[in-house]
Write a structure and sequence with these properties.
single chain, about 375 residues, alpha+beta, Rossmann fold, OB fold (Dihydrolipoamide Acetyltransferase, E2P), six-stranded mixed β-sheet, five-stranded antiparallel β-sheet, elongated, ABC_SmlMolc_Importer, phosphate transmembrane transporter activity, hydrolase, ABC-type spermidine/putrescine transport system, ATPase component, Transp-assoc_OB_typ1
């Protein structure tokens, strides 16, 4: 679904947060459309959870502004409480009370002044939604990690929030529980059309659940975009390294004609596409699946870049073979096992690595 023209329900404008003398967040600008799921991804300490706490109004920012549903958040306690009641937060390590599962899930409704006869059907429905029908009488402290996480999710959903915040929802779960919680979250998002902002260190999880991904590092939002935009066009070297691009070459543009550039990388000339000026220092991001490998004796490729080199390492990766090639610059390529066998690829074998200019993503250093 395309949310590019949808009305934002959450806006963060120049959001900053300082703890002591250090900035935890630096000028975060983020919009989330109604019904959209955005995943903030990055290593520990990147500031993901801090963004969630600020947007859920659990903390006040050191600077910047937050707008929820078109209403700018102020310091007024009553105004903040009114907005918070439209939101719910599931923590990485959810706190459950030493009571029954029913009472744990019912508590937010009681805080809102709801009466007992209205509470029971909502708790029952929330438990069924997370696959825990019949768990009402169980003691919450006796549940497994996956069950506890689902109770926390039911407790968040029972209030029918407009916005759901998920902070590393599966970080402490085993693979089976992780898969179950992910499936539940995906189904709930689709059924309820919730707006979701989640934090995770798991890039694959963000791809599975989110419409857009934001990559955070050291308190900065480095890039926000769809999965394809992040993977095919990383905005900077840090993002490229985080998503697993291993071949990153730095060089200088020596020629730029009609959108085709020539870059000098350690004495090797590589052609790529982009609007850059001679003298610009650039990073070239090369994906291994975009590099084709052939023998020097074979007929030439139509690719603009043909680099002769020698295989220096080979590794099996499932059905593929990963090649490290020394062309004067270090390249990584992948081929099928069948291709590797047919070409007789081995360490020390001379090969030609071919790469189309349009397959190289270029950014300024």
């Amino acid at each position: 679904m395309n949310f590019s023209n949808a009305k934002p329900i959450i806006e963060a404008r120049g959001l900053r947060q300082r703890y002591g003398g250090n900035f935890s967040l630096k000028d975060i600008n983020l919009t989330v459309a109604a019904g959209e799921t955005v995943a903030l991804i990055g290593p520990s300490g990147a500031g993901k959870s801090t963004v969630l706490r600020l947007l859920d109004l659990l903390e006040q920012p050191s600077g910047g502004a937050i707008v929820i549903g078109g209403q700018q958040v102020t310091g007024s306690a009553s105004s903040r409480l009114e907005l918070r009641r439209k939101m719910a937060f599931v923590h990485q390590k959810p706190l459950v009370f030493t009571t029954s599962v029913f009472d744990n899930i019912a508590q937010p409704l009681r805080w809102r002044g709801m009466k007992g006869e209205d509470i029971k059907p909502r708790v029952t429905a929330a438990l069924a939604e997370v696959g825990l029908a019949g768990f009402e009488g169980r003691q919450a402290k006796t549940l497994s990690g996956g069950e506890t996480q689902r109770v926390a999710l039911a407790r968040a959903l029972v209030t029918s929030p407009d916005i759901l915040f998920l902070d590393e929802p599966t970080a402490n779960l085993d693979p089976n529980s992780t898969a179950m919680v992910e499936e539940l979250v995906s189904n709930i998002i689709g059924k309820r059309r919730l707006t979701v902002v989640m934090a995770t260190h798991d890039l694959a999880q963000g791809q599975r659940l989110a419409n857009r991904i934001g990559v955070m590092m050291k308190g900065e939002l480095l890039q926000l975009g769809t999965s394809d935009e992040i993977f095919m066009a990383p905005a900077c070297r840090a993002v490229a390294e985080f998503i697993g691009i291993e071949t990153i070459l730095e060089g200088s543009v020596i020629e730029s004609i009609g959108g085709l550039i020539t870059v000098d990388v350690a004495g090797k000339l590589i052609q790529a596409t982009g609007e850059f000026m001679p003298g610009d220092r650039v990073n070239l991001f090369l994906r291994p699946d975009h590099i084709t490998v052939s023998l020097k004796s074979e007929i030439g490729s139509s690719a603009r870049n043909r680099l002769e080199g020698t295989i220096v390492n080979i590794a099996l990766v499932g059905p593929l073979v990963r090649l490290e090639i020394d062309c004067g610059i270090h390249l990584l390529a992948v081929v099928t096992r069948q291709s590797a066998d047919e070409l007789g690829l081995a360490i020390g074998k001379p090969v030609v690595a071919c790469l189309k200019a349009a397959a190289i993503h270029v950014v300024k250093v």
